[in-house]
Amino acid sequence: MDFNMKKTLLTVGILFTTQSFSAITNFCSNPTMTYQSGCTSTCSAIAASGNFNMSAGSIGVCMGEATVKNLSIKKIELGRTEIGNESRCQIWKGDDITIDEVSGLGLNSKYPITLDECTIGTTYDAMYFSLGRYENLAGEAVFPDGSNKVVRTTAVFSGKDSTHTDLFNLSSWRDLASADTSKVYTIPNAGSPAWIHKKISSSPSDIDLISSSNVTMIMDRTKLNYSTYTNTSARPGYVCFQNPDSSGLDTNDCVVDTNDTYVTIAPSEGVAGLPLILKEGDETLNIEYTALKTDRGNNEHSGIQFLWHMDGSTLKYVGVQPAEAEGVYTQISISGVGPIEGL
After folding, report:
1. Which residues contact 333 (CB under 8 A, 6 or more apart)?
2. Domain coverage including residue 191
3. Which of 85, 194, 235, 241 is the most exposed place for a label (fewest CB within 10 A)?
4. Is 65:141 a contact under the CB 8 Å cutoff?
């Protein structure tokens, strides 16, 4: 996600902008269905290269092209990463910003950025973003096997999953290996929490959807978070990402959820201008946050990932999740900290 917040007349508003993929976006030169560290395989690139290869019974993922991908921002805070001393202070809150990575349309907010709630002399080394719980997602991909068939987002499970509400009881709402047709979200096996996807069909299918339309599906980011972020002790009140083998814990890679929003942490490593120590007279600031558009052609696109299963010798699609291409990192910068009159 990326947006610009800057002064407009006597108030500070928000301008959200998107840009085409930059040089940091890495697509695999030899794309395969097997995970390749440091680059992304798109379904269309695999099909074009003729490199498709999956053994019977295996699963794989590849990137498709998102045609709808938007998520609302509800609140922005400064804070700290120190566990137990997060010191969050609200600097912006509103209801008129939706990150749209497909259209790239600029949006302005009527609500100001203000540092009134923050503490002079405090060192802030993180930003906390409160985002809408539900993300709208639609997209498509060619079958990576070169069959020329097309998969799309569908209406089967497009709505909100309001039936399964016990987030911490994963087995109550998360289907293992597509065995329960009543559940909306699935993972291939119990050891793959990062592979959570929303189902496209009740069970894996190879039906060609070339004549259909991309249906906008409502993705519950809270469920996606609670499937992937499973450590509840490292940062009290938050859930943090941890691999099933107990390695790779990052106490800054955490979220905290409410009924309608979830909060994600952007530490100083991902925000130019942090750490920031506020001084007397600091009233507002500028934030630049650049969203990268979801498609640049030449089989290079982002925004939606498809999960596949090789059923014997037949390739079948399973589900989708919102996803970014490898190398698309959050690009946020803070500048112009000072009095409103000085911006």
Report:
1. 271, 272, 273, 287, 288, 289
2. 4-342
3. 85
4. yes
- Write out the DSSP string of 107-148: EE-SSPP--TTS-TT-EE-EEEEEEESEEEEEEEEE-TTSS-
For residue 95, what is the DSSP state? S
Q: How far apart are CA 14 and CA 285, in angstroms?
A: 11
Q: Which residues pair with 223 in a beta bridge?
A: none
The model's pTM: 0.88
Q: Are 246 and 191 in contact (CB under 8 A)?
A: no
Number of domains forming the structure of the chain: 1
How many residues appear in the chain? 343
321 CB contacts (<8 Å, ≥6 apart)? Answer: 196, 197, 198, 219, 224, 304, 305, 307
Tens-level pLDDT at each residue, the chain (343 residues) = 333 333 222 234 444 445 555 545 689 999 999 988 889 999 999 999 999 999 999 999 999 999 999 989 999 999 999 999 999 999 999 988 888 888 766 556 788 899 999 999 999 999 999 999 999 999 999 999 999 999 999 999 999 998 888 888 899 999 999 999 999 999 998 777 778 999 999 999 999 999 999 999 999 999 998 888 888 899 999 999 887 666 678 899 999 888 789 999 999 988 889 999 999 999 999 887 766 677 778 898 889 999 999 999 999 999 999 988 776 555 688 888 999 874 4
Cis peptide leading into 112, omega within 30 of 0? no
Among 287, 291, 289, which residue's Cα sits nearest to residue 334? 287
* Residues 6 or more apart whose Cβ sits within 8 Å of residue 163: 173
Provide the 10 A C-beta neighbour count for residue 37: 5
Give Cα separations from 314 to 53, 147, 196, 203, 318 (angstroms). Answer: 12, 11, 22, 14, 13
* Rounded-to-integer distance, Cα 124 and Cα 78, Å: 6
Residue 90 token pair? 């609200």
Which amino acid does the sequence have at 1? M
